[in-house]
Amino acid sequence: MPVHNETLLDQACLIVQGPDKPGIVAAISTLIARNNGNILSLDQYSDNSAGSTFFQRVVFHREDLSAALPRIEADLADTLKDFGLTWTLTDQSVPKRMAVLASTSDHCLLDLLWRHRSGELPVTLPMVISNHTKTAEDVRSFGVPFFHVPSQGVDKSEAETEILKLLDGNVDFVVLARYMQILSPEFLHQVGVPVINIHHSFLPAFIGAGPYRKAKERGVKLVGATAHYVTEDLDEGPIIEQQVVRVSHADTTRDVVRRGADVERLVLSRAVAWHAEDRVLRNGNSTIVFAS
Q1: What does pTM read for this prediction?
Q2: Contacts of 284 (CB under 8 A, 6+ apart)
Q3: 5, 102, 169, 274: which could join 109 in a potential S-S bond, CB 3.0 to 4.6 Å?
Q4: What is the pLDDT of residues 42-97, one digit of tens each?
Q5: Which of 219, 231, 260 has its CA nearest to residue 243?
Q6: Beta strand pairing status for 195-200 and 173-177?
Q7: Sheet holding 11-19: strands in order across?
Q8: Alpha-carbon span 40 to 60, nearest angstrom
Q9: By C-alpha distance, which of 126, 122, 121, 66 is closest to 95?
Q10: Over the stretch 225-284, which tens digit does the pLDDT of each residue have?
Q11: What residues contact residue 87 under an 8 Å CB cut-off, 6+ apart?
């Protein structure tokens, strides 16, 4: 039986994107109305370029939504086919299933676990997978299954195969909470769900170990973090969220590390929540984010 968020019962989210043409908004609004839906929020954007692309997110309420979804989907397919649009329709009361991959650094992982338990993240959390056992006790104290999959040496294929077995059919997206392993193109192709990563925003200036120490030595004035979708191009996937905070000459390396960890937690939690709420629309190597 699927888990439901009762506060979102009978609410649907419709995502539409494709070539911009006159009449799209009217057609969608009319479709929702004739299916006895009431629009609760509507966000849209057109990039206004030659051959511009249209993006829309609509949340609507409809009594007895689960029974009505097949009829609404058929109506959407028939109505939108002439516009050349792609679309997805989701029941907002059914939270997405999120798996977390982590290593020894635990600040992002523990923040996600706490936000999940407090109800801030509209997800279920079927598992945490780590290549170390350091966080096992903390994860299990939140009632979340923990799986240890070691990843040693140059060849990561055995570890990736084991992770894929754990994820297969059990998750809707994956979050890398400072998972210090590079995922292979083969893994990303086979996992079949979006993967979200968080990293400090010094890349590529301070690559490798100790980036905050290196940043302090260079006298940086800003530290930040970037959350993005993972692609085969390392750390170059579509960006979901970014933020920076100021540091000064008086801050110690420990202060810089703390400020960096704080901003990483905030940026990652926002990205996870926005993805889980279908607020992020991918557009090539960029994103449209309808954040409230």
Answers
A1: 0.93
A2: 238
A3: 102
A4: 999 998 766 799 999 999 999 999 999 999 999 999 999 989 999 999 999 999 99
A5: 260
A6: parallel
A7: 38-46, 53-61, 11-19, 86-91
A8: 5
A9: 122
A10: 999 999 998 778 999 999 999 999 999 999 988 999 999 999 999 999 999 999 999 998
A11: 14, 15, 16, 17, 76, 80
CA distances from 107 to 93, 117, 214, 261 (A): 29, 16, 20, 7
Q: Would you say 222 and 245 are in contact if contact means Cβ atoms under 8 Å apart? A: yes
Structure tokens at 155: 């060849």
Q: Tell which residue, 178, 257, 265, 245, has the closest CA to residue 216.
A: 257
Listed in sequence order, the residues at least 6 apart from 261 whose beta carbon sits closer than 8 Å to its beta carbon are 107
Q: Roughly how many angstroms between the first and final C-alpha of the chain, as a whole number?
A: 30
**Helix intervals (H) in the chain:** 24-34, 65-80, 107-117, 136-141, 157-167, 185-191, 211-218, 253-276
| pLDDT tens-digit series, residues 149-173 | 998 777 889 999 999 999 999 999 9
Active-site choice (75, 138, 235, 251): 235
Residue 200 zone, left/alpha/beta (φ > 0; ψ -120 to 50; rest): beta
235 counts as catalytic: yes
Which pLDDT belongs to residue 186?
A: 95
The residue count for the chain: 292
Return the number of other C-beta atoms located less than 10 Å from residue 74's C-beta. Answer: 10
Residue 126 makes CB contacts below 8 A (sequence gap 6+) with: 97, 98, 99, 144, 145, 170, 171
**Torsion sign (Cα): 277, 283, 286, 292:** negative
Residue with token string 């598992």: 127
Looking at residue 213, what is its pLDDT?
Answer: 84
Q: What is the pLDDT of residues 128-153, one digit of tens each?
A: 999 999 999 999 999 999 999 998 77
Q: Tell me the three state secondary structure of residue 45.
A: strand
